[in-house]
Q: What sequence folds into this?
């Protein structure tokens, strides 16, 4: 059996059930493993927090997302991508996919979120069931790493592995997969918070 081409391996992520498998720098681990709302945690580490919606539209899901959301192969999904900004500095790139089979009864507020937090909606709804966290290292060739860098423009980190987590949510018959890519600037929030003490 031939090895998978290097280009293909760079575009795929190996999602792991435990953060230790990433061998990530220790400063990332509290962000990757924190329970509850990431939005609330980011707000606690900044004076000003906002969500910048990059787009919300129909797209094709990534190869490493299809099985997670119950699809046999990559296909069309509702996709939402955002930057979570702390004191106007992007700290997290957020990527959410919802299968086209979901309807308004499954995710009633998804289509009208705009600049509002998806996390606040998910954690405030008693019908939402949260799955387990998975973790991955995203190499520069992975589509989400590329999109995060494109959103950051000239300030994007180059040739650097990005660390991400994802979680599957269910509501009624619908599923929704949220991936959060932690940008290097998130580590500055920890340092700033520590210095305030």
A:
């Amino acid at each position: 059996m031939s090895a998978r081409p290097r280009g293909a391996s760079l575009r795929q992520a190996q999602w792991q059930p435990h953060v230790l498998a990433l061998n990530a720098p220790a400063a990332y681990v509290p962000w990757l493993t924190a329970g509850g709302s990431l939005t609330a945690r980011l707000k606690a580490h900044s004076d000003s927090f906002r969500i910048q919606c990059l787009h919300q539209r129909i797209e094709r899901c990534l190869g490493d997302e299809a099985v997670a959301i119950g699809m046999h192969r990559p296909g069309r999904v509702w996709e939402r991508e955002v930057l979570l900004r702390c004191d106007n500095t992007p700290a997290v790139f957020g990527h959410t996919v919802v299968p086209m089979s979901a309807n308004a009864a499954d995710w009633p507020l998804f289509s009208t979120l705009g600049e509002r937090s998806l996390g606040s909606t998910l954690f405030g709804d008693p019908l939402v069931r949260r799955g387990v966290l998975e973790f991955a290292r995203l190499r520069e060739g992975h589509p989400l790493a590329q999109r995060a860098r494109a959103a950051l423009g000239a300030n994007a980190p180059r040739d650097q592995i990005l660390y991400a987590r994802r979680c599957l949510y269910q509501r009624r018959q619908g599923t929704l997969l949220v991936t959060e890519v932690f940008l290097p600037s998130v580590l500055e929030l920890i340092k700033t918070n520590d210095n305030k003490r």
Residues 1-8, 191-197 have pLDDT under 50 and may be disordered.
